[in-house]
Amino acid sequence: MVCPRCQSENCQIINVVTETGKDFYASKGILGAICFGPIGILCGACGKGRKVRNKQYWVCNRCGKKWKL
After folding, report:
1. Hey, how many other C-beta atoms are within 10 angstroms of the C-beta on 55?
2. Has residue 3 got a pLDDT over 80?
3. 47 confidence band (pLDDT: 50, 70, 90)
4. Could you tell me the pLDDT band of residue 1, with boundaries at 50, 70 and 90?
């Protein structure tokens, strides 16, 4: 791979990880505890939850330019 900015061949692939969302919703846990007792606390873990996304980029080690694969 050749850098589009400086034409260097000294490039490498990096992986960027982003996370969104929550693992536990307190409001759902409290409501579950009220309705179903101690086992209802697990209702707080129900729902969309966390999303993890991986994106890979090329990075030039000479000029620092980053571009998508």
Report:
1. 11
2. yes
3. low
4. confident
* 52/66: higher pLDDT: 66
What span, in angstroms and rounded, lies between the C-alpha atoms of 30 and 35? Answer: 9
Taking the C-alpha atoms of residue 25 and residue 54, their distance in angstroms, rounded to an integer, is 24
Alpha-carbon span 4 to 17, nearest angstrom: 24
Locate 40 and state its tokens. 């209802």
- List the domain boundaries for the chain: 11-68
Tokens of 4: 């589009």
Phi and psi torsions of 5, nearest 5°: -90, -55
Q: Output the six-digit token pair for 16.
A: 């960027």
